[in-house]
Amino acid sequence: xxxxSTDPQQLxxxxxxxxxxxxxAGCLYRMGRREWLTDAGWQQMYDAGIRTVIDLRTVSxxxxxxxxxxxxxxxxxxxxxxxxxxxxxxxxxFTALFGPYLxxxxxxxxxxxxxxxxxxTVFRAIAAAPGGVVVHCAAGRDRSGIIAxxxxxxxxxxxEEIIRGYQQGMRGINERHRHHRAxxxxxxxxxxxxxxxxxxxxxxxxxxxxxxxxxxxxxTAHGVTEAEVAAICTKLGSRTD
Length: 241
Fold this sequence. Notes:
Tyrosine-protein phosphatase, 46% helix, globular, alpha/beta
């Protein structure tokens, strides 16, 4: 597939402008905010078989930034954008548990408990989506990371694959923070030793969450039909190339 390595250790996606873009499985991908993509990046994404982009952010997060490239409606109109916010920041428990935003797998279980129905809506959108699918949040790390873990759980991924997926996302946004200011002071760029320590702690929390999860049961308990789960599994096993 264009822009995709066949080496399972190197699953980064090289669409021009894309930040923290990774292959999950089959024809499913994840990345940071889509506004970072250039015209060429949108074209590359289309050429790779992507026909649906699912935005996990709240409405207020979708505002353009001064440094975002200008892209034409012609290239973006061929890919369906589906808005499926996974959270409600006005929820009092959200702020008490996560602060300004989710940033640690130790909190994934609470996040899923609070927003189970919203998360299930994402999976219904994946099931219904034509072609290859990209899910994106802001950084491409935690909200898209939860979706990725649930998909990996559904696909029977190994612990190694699950950890690698999270660490790729963590490293990817950390690398961007090396050259661009992070949106919050407590999420600044980490030098390698500090990053490794954080990765070790968060990877352990991630596996604890993954081991507690029965993806199929979770989805069907929150309104995703068995036919929709089957459609997602088909996407997990198919490629767009």
